[in-house]
Structures are given as C-alpha cells and as structure tokens.
C-alpha cells in the first residue's frame, strides 16, 4: 500500500500528569477545531465522568487536526491520546497498534518515569519513530538538559541488545503545552519556548 503524504497517525504517550491531554487541547485550539466563541472545557479529550473526576485519561481517544505544510498543502494528523497510568497499559498498546509514530512526552522536571519506560519499550519493539517532547520547560524546577540525557539513557537501556541504534536519532521539541508554545531550540530552565505557538 502506498504511503500517503497528506496523512500521519501518531500517539501521544507519557507518564500520568506530564501534559498529554493539555497538549492535545492546545493543538485543537491552534488548528481551529473550536470556534472562537465556543465554550470548551479544559481537557476536552477526557470526556468520561471518572476521567474528569480523577483528572486522568483512562480510555485512549482519537482526534484529528489539519496542518498546512511548507508546500501549502494540507496534512491531516490523526492523534491518539493514550492513558498515562500503568493500570491502563492495554489501552496504550491498542493505541500503538494504530499509529505510525509516537510523541513521547516527558516532564521537564520529573523526567522519564515508569510508564514512560513501558510505553517506549512497546514503541521501540514495533520500530516506531519517536519524537521527544520535553514539556513544562517553564516550570521553575525544570532541568531540561538532564531530562533529555535521562531519556537518551532510557533509549540506550531499552536498545541494549538491538544492533540497530537508529532509534537514538530522534528530534527533541521543547514545549509548554499549557501556554501552547513549542520550539526546536532549547530554552533556559524555567523559560518559555521561543515560538509563539506549537509549530516549532
């Protein structure tokens, strides 16, 4: 089957509370999915009562955003927002079975945590490309360089017996999902990304 250039399927994966759903909300707002005067609750993807009560994603959900590429053509990006808690690992695995790549979201202060390891192992086993997003770079206790290094170490550990180390060549995006900003340029710890939106 030929690869479509106008469609990408990605899963956003992370440990609980690292900002997956907040990032998806910002992407939906910036892509024009919501009307200017439309009232939308925070965490639009967490639609279940229990999810709203607990403040966590329990069921994987999908949405799509449209993105104008450099050549002027539109690309549809199908996004799966996956649970961040290990108890819902089956939902994460189901989400990974439907995508071409993952966006691995890691908190700029907390770094990779157990669910990060679980999800990354599954993605690497499927030989999926990974985009690392270091989120919450504007936290006062951010330690961005250390978190990127810890994530590289996690990759090395998970690829220990794999002769193909090409997975180590992943892009890093620095973001503040709450502010709706991201950049390919690393900011100082506790500072905002140098972009005004999520398009690095």
Automatic annotation (TrEMBL):
SUPFAM superfamilies: P-loop containing nucleoside triphosphate hydrolases (SSF52540)
Record carries keyword Transferase: no
Species: Kribbella turkmenica
CDD domains linked to this entry: TypA_BipA
Gene Ontology CC terms: cytosol; ribonucleoprotein complex
Domain Tr-type G: 5-200
GO molecular-function terms, A-Z: GTP binding; GTPase activity
Record-linked InterPro entries: BipA_GTP-bd_dom, P-loop_NTPase, Small_GTP-bd, T_Tr_GTP-bd_dom
Protein's recorded name: GTP-binding protein
Keywords carried by this UniProt record: GTP-binding, Nucleotide-binding
